[in-house]
Amino acid sequence: MPHPQHQPPTSNYHNISNPYPNNLFFSVYLSHSPMAQYTEYEVNRALADITSGQSTRDASSKWGVPRSTLRSRLKGTQPRAAAFSELQRLSISQEAKLASWVQIQADLGLAPTHQQIREFAQRILNAMGDTQPLGKR
């Protein structure tokens, strides 16, 4: 199917001419994102299909989960969130409440800074009796 022809603007705003030919068509190809494009549910469904006899390749295609991820999980590798859960200082519900607060503030046009989010998280920890400063170490 041929690409639609690019139409130049009808107005010549500030007398700027279009330096590109009329048939120039821009395509954007997205590279692989560092974030996973699948959910834990999809991983579990793919693993269930594999254990019931479907090939890893077919389950990978069907559920959109990389074969390498499925092979690793079959060998016993934990999901990233579970593997590092012991290192997290906030509980899942506390983290969800913090994220909700950030979203509410952003919706009000008052998005908190990184420092404000850290301070809020530190207040939550202090209320639990955890006075260690936040950070990697």
UniProtKB/TrEMBL annotation:
It holds the Pfam family HTH_psq. The keyword DNA-binding applies. PROSITE patterns: HTH_CENPB. InterPro entries: Homeodomain-like_sf, HTH_CenpB_DNA-bd_dom, HTH_Psq. Keywords: DNA-binding, Nucleus. The keyword DNA-binding applies. SUPFAM superfamilies: Homeodomain-like. Signal peptide: none annotated. GO terms for molecular function: DNA binding. This is Transposase. It comes from Colletotrichum incanum (Soybean anthracnose fungus).
